Amino acid sequence: xxxxxxxxxxxxxxxxxxxxxxxxxxxxxxxxxxxxxxxxxxxxxxxxxxxxxxxxxxxxxxxxxxxxxxxxxxxxxxxxxxxxxxxxxxxxxxxxxxxxxxxxxxxxxxxxxxxxxxxxxxxxxxxxxxxxx
Length: 133
Known about the structure:
InterPro entries: YdhG-like (IPR014922). This is PF08818 domain protein. Strand 3 (about 55-60) and strand 4 (about 65-70) form a beta hairpin. This protein has one domain (about 10-125): Aspartate Aminotransferase, domain 1, CATH 3.90.1150. It is of the alpha+beta class. It is built from five helices and six strands; from the N terminus they run H-H-E-E-E-E-H-H-E-E-H. Strands 1-2-3-4-6-5 form a six-stranded antiparallel beta sheet. Helices cover about 45% and strands about 20% of the residues. Helix 2 (about 20-35) crosses helix 5 and helix 3 packs across helix 5.
């Protein structure tokens, strides 16, 4: 991939070989189907989906797809991701193995619900504060 930061997910995907482009596009459409109201952007030079805050990031590398569901996404799916290399908020899906699109869908759904709950709590907190006027 070139060093210029892409301005869109389309631009990001075009920087990779065809077989990797297909994987990235499938990940993108998996997320879009799960959360059609989410906004697409580039954050940290990676494709990112946002709805009431960041949902997930994903990125292609020489030998794997990096999927970033923040620490909470990894904690919630520890058992399912244990077969992959993972860190605090990242998972590596090897390019020489089938990409677990079903797992990606489940993680995205979890992150949507988590962000909605955080938003509800923030709203409730604001409403419960006494109004000193």
